[in-house]
Fold this sequence. Notes:
This protein has 183 residues and is mostly helical. It has one domain (11-182): Fumarate Reductase Cytochrome B subunit. The protein is 67% helix and 2% strand. It contains four helices and two strands; from the N terminus they run H-H-H-E-E-H. It has helices spanning 11-35, 41-70, 82-113, 133-168, and strands at residues 118-119, 123-124. Strands 1-2 form a two-stranded antiparallel ribbon. Helix 1 (11-35) runs antiparallel to helix 2, helix 2 (41-70) crosses helix 3 (82-113) and helix 3 (82-113) packs antiparallel against helix 4. The chain is elongated, with a radius of gyration of 19 Å. The protein binds protoporphyrin IX containing FE (2 copies). One protoporphyrin IX containing FE (HEM) binds next to helix 1, helix 2, helix 3 and helix 4.
Amino acid sequence: MKSSSPTRYTGTAIVLHWLIALLILVAFPVGLFMTDMKLSPLKLQIYSWHKWAGVTVLVLVVLRLVWRTMHRPPALPDSMGPLEKLAAHGAHWALYLLMIAVPMSGWLFSSAKGFPVVWFGVLQLPDLVGKDAALADFFHEAHELLAWALILIVAAHAAAAIKHHLVARDEVLTRMLPFLKSR
Length: 183
Ligand code: HEM
Ligand code: HEM
């Protein structure tokens, strides 16, 4: 029923959205940069930071999906055509899927490579698979490919949000922002 549809995202949804976005936008370039570094204690430290950020994304996405099952997001504006709405919903679900698949493939890669993941240096996560070179190659490729897919969809998603604000001049961006009131 349209009349009961909320007009804004809740504070929880906004905090989770921007925290996860920030972590992904840092983890991605760090991932690219660290793989090109010469072996050193700093390289290993950066690998750990990358994994901590990635596992945090995984935890926050699970929280966000729990939020999502309990709250209906605001409806898309009626000015959008059916195809546009389909693209927006498709992109959102692809993002949710990739926000799980990218950290999971990283974790699987680390396990197959024989490096345990110790979250923030404190909580050792279980190895998901045994040490296996062929499997490690597979998950490495998968992690790289999925991370690029994630970042490309994020770029399209952010461009669409900005277009909503500047061209369509609707409330789609402001309802996901903590500081701008909807017009
Ligand atoms: C949303 C979260 C994440 C993003 C966006 C991300 C992104 C990336 C990117 C772009 C690379 C470089 C790929 C390459 O050029 O080879 C990379 C490498 C790597 N990632 Fe992630 N990653 C994430 C989460 C994780 C997690 C959770 C783990 C492990 C627990 C992980 C482990 C690794 C490792 C070990 C590498 C290095 C691969 C190598 O040595 O070549 N990543 N990641
Ligand atoms: C890594 C970065 C990002 C990820 C993974 C991401 C993911 C998502 C997802 C999954 C949703 C759907 C929420 C739902 O209805 O369940 C969403 C909504 C939204 N995102 Fe992002 N986002 C990212 C970055 C950005 C950026 C940079 C912007 C703005 C420039 C942005 C603007 C928005 C807006 C305005 C909405 C609400 C759309 C609506 O009301 O239908 N996001 N985001």
